[in-house]
Amino acid sequence: MTDSALHLRLRGIAKSYRASARAANVLHRLDLDVRRGEFLVLLGRSGSGKSTLLNLMGGLDYPDAGEVYIDERALFAMSERERTLLRRREIGFVFQAFNLVPTLSVRENVLLPLELNGELGPEAESRAASWLAAVGLEGYGEAFPDELSGGEQQRVAIARALVHGPSLILADEPTGNLDLSTAQKVLDLLDDLCRREGKTLVMATHSREVMGLADRVVSLEDGRVVETAV
Amino acid sequence: MSSQPRASLVFKAGWRHLRGFGLQLVLAIVGIAVGVAVVVGIDLTNESASRAFAMSTDALMGRATHQVVGGPQGVPESVYPWLRVEQGLRDAAPVLELSVAVGERELTLLGIDPFAEDGVRGSLGEGEFDIGRLIAQAGAVVLPDDLAAELEAGYGDRLQLSAAGAVHTVEVVGTVASQPGAESLLWADIATAQELAGRVGWLTRIDLVLEPDQARWLEAELPEGLELIDAGSRRQSLGEMSRAFEINLTALSLLALLVGLFLVYNTMSFALLRRRELIGVLRALGVERSQLLRNVLLEALILGGVGTLLGIAVGIPLANGLLQLVGRTLSDLYYARSIAELSVAPLSLVKAVALGMGGTLLAALVPAYAAASTPPRQDLGRSALERGVKRRLGLVTGLGAVLLILGALLLLPSDALWLGFVALFAITVGLALLVPIATVGFMRALARPLGRRFGGFGRMAARGVVAGLSRTGVALTALAVAVSAVVGMGLMIGSFRASVGDWLGSVLRADYYLARQDDAPLTPDLIDTVRQLPGLSDVSLSRYERLPQEEGDVSLWIVQLGEEAWAGFQFRAGEPNAAWQAFQNGAVIVTEPFAFHHALAPGDRLSLRTQEGVREFPVAGVYADYSSDRGIVAMAESTYEKWFGASPVESMGLYAHNAARLGQALDELKAEHPQLQIRSNLDLRERSMEVFDQTFAVTDVLRILAALVAVVGVFSALSALALERAREAAVLRALGFTPTRLAILHVTESGLMGLAAGLFALPLGIVLAVVLIEVINRRAFGWTMDFALLPGPLLDGFWLALLSALVAAVYPAWRQARAVPARGLREE
Ligand SMILES: Nc1ncnc2c1ncn2[C@@H]1O[C@H](COP(=O)(O)OP(=O)(O)O)[C@@H](O)[C@H]1O
Ligand SMILES: [Mg+2]
């Protein structure tokens, strides 16, 4: 029973970069379990491997060894296409640098994941609109990303990450480019939405402010995960 | 001072940055190299052709300053002793020039006075030959070493030589050192040459070395019917013959360079866009603008230098290849001498270096200036950058419009050819600058239907092109210009071809044409036999002759025509019926290029030197003819006989009332006289079109080269764009775009660009074709041709644009799709 509550399971993950000056392993036979609906904060200094780990969880990069299981499906045993489809349906990303598609309007950015999953038409439009409303950006739909502030852009990114109903949200320092008060608002929004929808949220950060919101906090040290008391 | 090391560090920072663009850099260098190679190739080809021409003219004329020439028969032999003995002009050398052939090899035989040769022409040069036998023995000849080797003929060997329609046996009595320009010459004594030519008692001309006052004096003293002409001016006008080619080729080579420069612009502006953060930091550290500008230009110079060197290295073998092609055409069209040797003129190389380096600098100037003007530490996001580009779009469009109007205005005031070229250039660049704004409009218009059909995906593709205008704009423009040049040349050549075909259809009226294979005169007996053939209704008789004149030779076409043949002439000026009457009564008609070069119109008079001195002939009309860009004068046989003497017939046009009967009879005639060449109307027409196509074969090669540069340009721009968008691509992958879908998106974008470039290239190509037809060809040669809007070149151009854009997109798209998304996300 406890196993079905396990959403994400990392086993023996190793990753090093050939080009890295230190040539040391960034991740070193790392194990990590994340339960369904859990809000996990991944703490670590800059350069400790947080982004590397999140990229591996989302199948954006390949490990040197080890496996990532999402609902007990081995991510790296899949074909590139299967991995992409899984990501498309079940994972939402929020990045530090927002990464909206500059050539699409705000509304279209939010529509994009729906369209990729084959959802079109008025149904999709209204869902996108309601998500824009949920992040407090009604009326911004026709704006283009470069016309928004950083906080607004990140809110669009959150709407885009959630609109198609993924069960796993991977957020890589989502507040890293924002000022303190904006950051707090964005964090609260993300936490609120994920909890309301019962999403699993893994958030990398190096700031300790987030810790109050999280269910569990782990630190990345020397390429491994160390449990940290909240 | 510490400024020196700082400067070098700043340069290092930039240079290393530039070096990081491996593929881009290689492509830019390739672009410059191809552009320079084409320019060098064509320039060297032109130089070698004219040098070969000058050398063979030298071999024929040597030091001669003047020539004594006569009417079509030439100069009576007796004039030579008169000059040399009675007038005491020792530097006089007679010559009888004769076209001969040994087997398939066409040669020029010079009949000379071996003792007079040294002081004047010196054409014989050093060698081992028996001068006694050369003079005393009938049928003795001397060859250059190389030719002797080629013909495998040594001292005492006999050769079968065909000359003036008969085959003679001659004996080799020695060889001389081969000289450039004299590869196809052989020498004999005057008496031998006269014998071979069947022109005993006559010379082609007498070459003289004269002081100016001697020349003035001699001019007055010369017997009636002879004339003294200035060898210098004659030499020059001979050299003009290949100008038609030079003009066409030079225009094309400049075009290739233009496209190459687009590549440089592309790479430099791309590299500098990517460097904006570095530049911001450097500026924040206190580096001056002027220093940044200098450094960037220095980088451009290095690129330009490498590209230029490579271009020269490739250009020389290219010239060798082109020379084979051009040489064949030139010798077909102008003179039967081979251009075997490539000469590398230092001036051509200087020109190439100046164009390659200067062009690169020029192309780098705008992006360098923009980069140096980056405000310190301003966080220039991509979108801010594109907004800047959109602001500049107004400027570019305005400039384009101004250039276009200026180009059109330049066409009005005069008929100068160079102004025509300036206008052509202005119009091309002007139209090119309008491509970006047209792209924006086109993509906006497309975004809606694409969005409706393909959703956000389709919209993204269309908007992606506009959003990346700083990259796509240049690539698109380069592609459109290159393709429009292909379309323009294609339409021009196609129109030209159609006009020629039309003209051939009109002027070739006879059912059969008959001549001897060696172009020797037809005997009166044979002509009578032909006149008796069954099925024949009418004949026309004609012969070509080169009349030496002060301003160069005039091609005279001596004809005896029936009314039916006359009806085939397309008159550009003059009334056909009136012209017919006048023509029968001593007037001449001239071709369009002849009228153009000599500024003649119906009612004017044309001076020609006849047996009885210079005489003026009324010009009755100007008719269409594309066979010679120098022009032809047509004269009735009766008129010729009156002023020049009897004219042997060289070719006959046969009109049939029963073509089948006549054809059969001609077959029998041919069996009896194997040396005859009998061509049907269709046959001759096809053969003429073949010659036309062969003439333009060289432009095909160059068109392909221009297209190649365009593809490299698009490829370079697209891979730059792909690099720049690595992050966007990674985000799309994170959102769940499959690699295939991402690749399709980028290929679609590129396809849209190709579509746009293809569409814009069509009107651009049509304008270029109209300018080439109405301005350049008319101003250079005086040819009128009808513009034909042929679907072929238009479709070719359209497909070329679309396919090259698609092909160019494949590799960058494939690479991007395969990239690990995590890396793209990390990149900044
Ligand atoms: N593409 C790469 N090439 C070489 N080294 C890399 C690359 N990506 C990350 N690294 C190195 O791996 C380590 C971990 O990086 P990252 O996962 O980005 O850490 P964090 O997100 O915790 O700051 C760093 O030392 C970084 O230098
Ligand atoms: Mg990170």
Backbone structural class of chain B: alpha+beta
Name the poorly predicted regions of chain A. Answer: none
Structural class of chain A comes to alpha/beta
> How many separate helices of chain B?
29
- Mean of the pLDDT scores of chain A? 88
Bound heterogens, unique: adenosine-5'-diphosphate, magnesium ion
Name the overall outline of chain B. Answer: elongated
Tags for this entry?
heterodimer; A: 230 residues; alpha/beta; Rossmann fold; six-stranded mixed β-sheet; four-stranded antiparallel β-sheet; 6 helices; 10 strands; 32% helix; globular; B: 828 residues; alpha+beta; 4 domains; ten-stranded mixed β-sheet; six-stranded mixed β-barrel; elongated; binds adenosine-5'-diphosphate; binds magnesium ion
What do these coordinates show?
The complex is a heterodimer of chains A (230) and B (828). Chain A has 230 residues and is of the alpha/beta class. Chain A has one domain (37-59, 79-229): Rossmann fold (3-Layer(aba) Sandwich). Chain A is built from 6 helices and 10 strands; from the N terminus they run E-E-E-H-E-E-H-E-H-H-H-E-H-E-E-E. In chain A, strands 6-7-8-3-9-10 form a 6-stranded mixed sheet, with helices on both faces. Chain A has a 4-stranded antiparallel sheet with strand order 2-1-4-5, with helices on one face. In chain A, helix 3 packs parallel to helix 5 (150-162) and helix 4 crosses helix 5. The longest helix of chain A is centred in the last third of the chain and has 18 residues, at 180-197. The model of chain A has no long low-confidence stretch (mean pLDDT 88). By secondary structure, chain B is α+β, with helices and mostly antiparallel strands. Chain B has 4 domains: 1-63 and 231-380, no CATH class; 75-203, no CATH class; 404-493 and 699-828, no CATH class; 519-674, no CATH class. Chain B is 63% helix and 16% strand. In chain B, the strands form 3 sheets. In chain B, strands 13, 14, 15, 16, 17, 18, 19, 20, 21 and 22 form a 10-stranded mixed sheet that branches. A 6-stranded mixed β-barrel of chain B has the order 3-4-9-6-8-7, surrounded by 4 helices. In chain B, strand 7 and strand 8 form a beta hairpin. The longest helix of chain B has 45 residues, at 289-333. Chain B is elongated. The two termini of chain B are 36 Å apart. The interface between A and B is medium-sized, with 34 and 32 residues. The site of magnesium ion (MG) has 4 residues of chain A, from helix 1.
